[in-house]
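question for whoever is on the cluster today: can someone run the full assembly for these? two chains, 432 residues total. i dont have access anymore since they changed the login thing
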Amino acid sequence: MGRTSTARERLIDATGELMRSRSYSSLGVAEICAKAEVKKGSFYHFFESKQALTIEAINAYWEAERGCWTAELAATGPALDRLRRLLDTMAQLQRRMKETSGTVDGCLLGNLTLELSTQEPAVRARLEEVFDEQIALVVGTLNDAADEGTIPRERATATTARAVVAHLEGLVMFAKVKNDPAVLDELWPHTLLLLGAADHPPDARTPHSQPTAQLD
Amino acid sequence: MGRTSTARERLIDATGELMRSRSYSSLGVAEICAKAEVKKGSFYHFFESKQALTIEAINAYWEAERGCWTAELAATGPALDRLRRLLDTMAQLQRRMKETSGTVDGCLLGNLTLELSTQEPAVRARLEEVFDEQIALVVGTLNDAADEGTIPRERATATTARAVVAHLEGLVMFAKVKNDPAVLDELWPHTLLLLGAADHPPDARTPHSQPTAQLD
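^ ran it for u. tokens below:
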């Protein structure tokens, strides 16, 4: 009875877990049901398709990750410190995966984006929304950083925020191909460059007044 | 006879073409053989597995792309102009795909990295080698740029080159999730930031002597 009532959640959890290290196409409904300990016959009682279940798995993944994104970015302290903590947390997730499973599994959102964008329009549309939310969260923090004078005002844009997230996803790809989370140690110094923050040390409160201390 | 002698090449070509927009796992040997117009029975005469064929498809893809990378990066002219032309060419590939097929298919190397790194060790190892080659090619050009004084010497490193390629792969991911190659219009200005070149306009030949013209 208790198990039946949680069957939907178990299917979503099993999908998220399996798809982190395996592709959508390599997974069948039977395998997902077996992992979730749900009878295959009842799968279509909960979901009309594997695609529909995948969108729910994306939602569950992002709901958990969004909690982390908003908590780190809305914390107290200078904006760049908050952004750094978020990126550190993302890197830490990959390190922990390597420690527990032996592999850097990467980001479920990135994995599904490259596998399914050309194949499953509904999945692509949901992934686009999630990435747009990430970018909006980062833009808010970049605006704070510009207010604090630690980045130039012209870098507090959605375009720059997208570059920051793109660089994160790209380095996660390299961590995955090298199966080495140490690749992500480069995340922060390069993010500072993308933000034009190298000339704006965090203790500077007057925008654009510093010499090019780190480059000169 | 002629067709038989090119069967191996046709299998490799068909695989590269199919895997650009579809995942490895979604493709069966039968479908690849059908596209290549090769009898399924003779597949294993040429390749011991789909994995082995995939590695050959990666090799063929990179052989063609490497020609483009070396041609652009070894051309005459300032190093940053050469790097820019390479990145423009990469963006142009995605634009052309969108025009011809209606979808931004992304990069075969990135697609396979996220799908297979945790599943197929031999494919992962080959992809790692290819990305290492890309990084080495970019490092050579960054060294030229440092010699020309258009980027700071400390940015002419493999670490920076990896950030440039990671940012490219990340933006290609965004172009794919948005099915819009215009995302790649941001590629060059952000690459300049990663290179610390914003303070080093291409016509400056004396390193580190410029004021922070573009940031101030």
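summary bc i know u wont read the tokens: Confidence is low (pLDDT under 50) at residues 203-216 of chain B. Chain B touches chain A through 54 residues (CB under 8 Å).
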